[in-house]
Amino acid sequence: MSQTPGQATPKRKRLRNTRRTEREGVNALRAFLEDQDCVVQEVDTANDFGKDLLVDLTKNHEITGETIAIQVKSGKSFSQRGHWGIPASSADLHTWYESSTPIYGVIFDPAEREFHWINLSSYVHEHMDALQDHKNLGKQKSQSGIRFKGHFVSTPEKQTLTQESWENFAGEVRGYIHRFGGRTLLDLMSEDMSAQISAVHDCFALGRGDARALLLLRHTITKLSNYALAQALHVLSHCASNPDIPWNERNWIPQNITWQVNASFNWSPEEILHMIRQVEETGSAGVSAWERGGYGQSLVVLIWDSPDLCERLHSALLTACRGYDDNVAFRTLILYQYFLGIRRPDVDLKERVESLVKSNPILAEHAVSSGLLSTIDDFGWADIF
Asked: I need a surface site. Which of 51, 81, 189, 204 has the fewest CB within 10 A?
């Protein structure tokens, strides 16, 4: 239909100014992923709620079943003060948190042809609360409604996706999918030491955003042995008053989580004895144990506020004298006299220790039993380390 001279031009829908840039990012990333033999499915724009691509990883040209969603951004508008990232509304943060599929964010820099990436699911599940809590340390802040407050989510510096870094990225994805599904925590019960250690580390990662992971670690403490137990002591000591942890944004645990976990440190004599025995074994293998900064310090920090600690250590000591080797029994004695001297100044410590040594041959025959008694006689007590 011809337009009558002087007639106003009708209003029509217009393309967004950013559409070409957005498509450039999606197309470039899709091509890159397909070059890595990934199966890429683009989400229809009508159904795009923060997931632009669904990606299946492959291995040796086989579908592995490892699937992630990717939110793609493109252009210099996603760089603030030299940091690439994604502006996240409260709704975005909720979506990432509640998604049953891990979500990654990728920002395409058209000028440098680079992909900057971040694991958005890991951010909201494992890091966000800890980062915010650490950032506001010492400041007055209200806890209500702060968790999903919108903000700019920066990608880690120099974390780019390239041909050279692809294997590292794919390995991170596979590891996170394993952790994200909760299967990794089952390895706390594994008979394989390396699997147990990996599960302990994942409990720390997940526990920074969800106290249940650290509570699970605490309540399976007697199922862990040797180095896995030692690592668990170090992880859990982040929820106690450990004076020698160099705190930073990467290891900070929010106070609301530390309070929940610390409240569970009501250790039984059996748990205490198990922990002492495993630390003693790592020490005999040449690992830093009963010294400042060692795993023994982590154990001491964990049991410090345990109720009725002297009575529980005494019970653990009697059990150790009946069924454990002399080093475990003697180490338990050292811990017992140390805490008894602190908690019960009314007790004659030398007399109590002498009585225990005389009535338990395993203690009396230990190489340094006389040295312990001399130290107590000279100084009133003996240090743990």
From this structure: 81
SS3 category, 5: coil
What pLDDT is stored for residue 166 in this prediction? 96
CA–chain centroid gap for 118, Å, is: 17
Please state, in angstroms and rounded to a whole number, the distance separating the CA atoms of residues 150 and 87: 8
Enter the tokens of residue 300.
């001491």
| CA gap 280, 96 in Å, rounded | 44
Burial of 98 (0-12, 13-18, 19+ CB in 10 A): exposed
- Provide CB contacts within 8 A for 230, sequence distance 6+: 278, 279, 282, 287, 289, 295, 298
pTM: 0.81
Per-residue tokens: 254: 């929010």
pLDDT along the chain (385 residues), means of 10: 59 53 90 96 72 94 92 93 92 91 95 95 90 73 66 92 96 90 85 92 92 96 94 96 86 92 96 95 79 91 94 97 92 96 92 95 93 92 89
CA–CA distance, 248 with 245 (Å, rounded to integer): 9
3-class secondary-structure state, position 325:
coil
- Pairing of β 103-109 and β 151-154: unpaired
Rounded (5°) CA angle 313-314-317 = 85
Type of residue numbered 155: T
374: CB partners within 8 A, 6+ apart: none
- Token output for 48: 């795009």
Q: What are the φ/ψ torsions at residue 80 (nearest 5 degrees)?
A: -125, 120
Q: How many CA atoms lie within 13 A of 266 on its CB side?
A: 4
Q: For residue 270, how many other CB atoms are within 10 A of its CB? A: 13
d(CA 286, CA 267): 27
- Residue of 70, 282, 285, 300 lying closest to 169 (CA atoms): 70
**What CA–CA distance (Å, rounded) separates 273 from 21?**
62
Number of neighbours of residue 201 by Cβ within 10 angstroms: 16
**Surface-to-core class of residue 292, CB atoms within 10 Å of its CB (0-12 exposed, 13-18 middle, 19+ buried):** exposed
Residue 115's H or E segment, with its range, is strand 114-119
| Contact (Cβ atoms closer than 8 angstroms) between residue 87 and residue 152 | yes
